[in-house]
Specification:
Blueprint (H helix, E strand, L loop, with lengths): L42 H8 L1 E4 L5 H16 L26 E2 L8 H7 L2 H11 L4 E3 L4 E4 L14 E2 L11 E6 L9 E5 L6 H7 L14 E2 L2 H9 L4 E3 L7 E5 L4 E4 L7 E5 L2 E3 L5 H12 L20 E2 L2 E2 L15 H5 L3 H8 L5
Antiparallel strand pairs: 1-10, 2-4, 3-13, 4-12, 5-8, 6-10, 6-12, 7-9, 7-11, 14-15
The structure holds fe (ii) ion.
Fe (ii) ion binds next to loops.
Length: 357
């Protein structure tokens, strides 16, 4: 059992395999993400070729709608003045603190029950298990994103095309994902991707190694300059807005250039980020760091191996702690055994008892 006292284990909908992975066969058919045609017969063919894919109905529509409702309720319950029925309340002062890209980073939101329910959905976990050919996965403690249709009071969201992978570490390393909760068409904001860019990533960084780097807080982020954008275009790559319905999962290779845009239509964009990685690719020290992040209800960005852990959940508003700042989620997560494994803690505990993972 976990040493985490606030986590309650409930019954499972399906039998749970042992936390100990079978290392003899797992991952043998892990996707290559090499841009070549494949014959899986599902979203993986799109993903391998294009560097991104949409998994339709990863979450059933009724539950996707209830999660969208939970998202709106969460923002209303800060009681700062925002209400979903009044577009005039889409004001910075009436909402929890978020950045210009729509990300709510603080307040322990990543560990809210509704966020855990979304990232623990069977159809979401299963998509990543297929990509990695491995069911023993851990999940990022990443943030949520709201792109309001009515955002006159929000700072401009300028394009920031980037890849989320250190160019000095080529090859497929990380599959990112987001679960879309509202209808998301061409004018509803959201993810923009450079189709097929994953497969040319190594060539790009080889040929553009002379290009000055846009400053970044982590070497795992690479921003495309105008010359870099020209290179992508001159190699025939095109940018596409990814459209999705409620409950659809969008996945993309971290090497695929991408960014997000604000809605220009009438519908808010609601998304929860979730990224999974096989636990067997993660070291013990990383799992220790991840356990600490879980117990303190901190975020890990999109990296499931807790490469980065936020220092605090306290939101800063105009240079001071937000009056409704909080260190822990409003609703502490209660996880099933299957979902709790995604924290990595059961695997770590097995390691600590001397088993190999
Ligand atoms: Fe990104």
């Amino acid at each position: 059992m976990s040493t985490t006292t606030t986590t309650t284990i409930t019954s499972l909908p399906a039998p749970a395999p042992s936390p100990t992975p079978n290392t003899t066969t797992k991952g043998q058919n892990r996707m290559l993400l090499d841009g070549q045609p494949t014959n899986y017969g599902d979203f993986r063919d799109d993903l391998n070729r294009d560097g991104y894919a949409v998994i339709k109905g990863a979450i059933p529509l009724d539950r996707a709608k209830s999660y969208a409702d939970a998202f709106y309720t969460y923002m209303e319950d800060f009681k700062l003045g925002y209400t979903r029925t009044n577009p005039q309340t889409v004001r910075r002062g009436q909402l929890p603190v978020m950045n210009e890209k729509g990300m709510i980073l603080d307040y322990g939101v990543t560990h809210e029950q509704w966020v855990w329910d979304i990232r623990g959905e069977e159809g979401v976990v299963d998509a990543f298990a297929r990509v990695y050919d491995d069911e023993d996965l851990i999940v990022s403690f990443d943030v949520v994103n709201v792109g309001f249709a009515n955002r006159e009071d929000m700072p401009e969201n300028k394009p920031w095309p980037h890849q989320d992978q250190d160019p000095s570490k080529p090859g497929f390393r990380c599959l990112q994902g987001l679960i879309n909760l509202n209808p998301n068409g061409p004018h509803d904001g959201g993810l923009i991707v450079c189709k097929g860019g994953h497969a040319l990533s190594s060539q790009f960084h080889h040929e553009m190694a002379h290009e000055e780097r846009i400053p970044a807080w982590t070497p795992e982020w690479y921003g495309y300059t105008s010359a870099g954008m020209d290179w992508l275009a001159s190699h025939g790559l095109k940018w596409e807005k990814v459209c999705a319905g409620p409950g659809d999962l969008i996945v993309w290779d971290s090497r695929t250039p991408h960014y997000n845009v604000a809605p220009t239509g009438e519908v808010d964009r609601l998304a929860v980020y979730a990224c999974f990685m096989p636990v067997r690719e993660v070291g013990r020290g990383e799992l220790v760091r991840k356990r600490d992040a879980y117990e303190r209800r901190l975020g890990t960005t999109h990296w499931p191996n807790a490469k980065h852990v936020s220092k605090s959940n306290i939101a800063m508003r105009d240079g001071k702690p937000c009056p409704v700042a909080r260190e822990r989620p409003v609703e502490e997560p209660v996880l099933s055994e299957r979902v709790f494994r995604l924290t990595g803690i059961p695997y770590l505990e097995e390691m600590e008892r001397g088993k190999e993972v």
